[in-house]
Amino acid sequence: MADWPYNTATWRRLRLAKLAHDPLCFACQLRGQIVMARAVDHIKSVKSGGDPFPSLDGLMSLCDRCHNEKTGAVDRPDRAATGRRFKGFDAQGNPIDPGDDWHGGGASKDQKCGT
To answer: Which residues have a Cβ under 8 Å from the Cβ of 113 and sit 6 or more positions away?
Structure first.
């Protein structure tokens, strides 16, 4: 996490504000689990043209596992991406990823995956 914008005081303040506002992992909550978040992730990655310092609703609080899963699935252009941000299903058996086609399609994954 040494590259810009993550090595700035602005990012550190924004990250702490997001974790204070949403201390639980977004994806784990969708699975019905209560897990403390440690990472803050851009809903639209900076590499994809996302704002490096968005408002809090442009960020997701995630546990390390979910952050790594999301980054590997959609934010790594050097790897074969699955396109699904989060694996798993809710208690009703529905996919937890708000960007999954099951949830209606049409809107981009960035628009559907908020906190």
So the answer is: 43, 60, 85, 97, 98, 99
Which pLDDT band holds residue 38 (cuts at 50, 70, 90)? very high
Residue 75 lies in a domain: yes
> In the predicted model, is pLDDT for residue 81 greater than 90?
no
Cα-based distances in Å from 110 to 9, 24, 27, 50, 59: 25, 20, 14, 10, 10
Give the domain range for residue 75.
9-112
Answer yes or no: are the C-beta atoms of 81 and 74 closer than 8 Å.
yes
Q: How confident is the model at residue 111 (pLDDT cuts 50, 70, 90)?
A: very low
Instruction: Give how far Cα 1 sits from Cα of 8, 97, 105, Å.
Output: 10, 25, 33
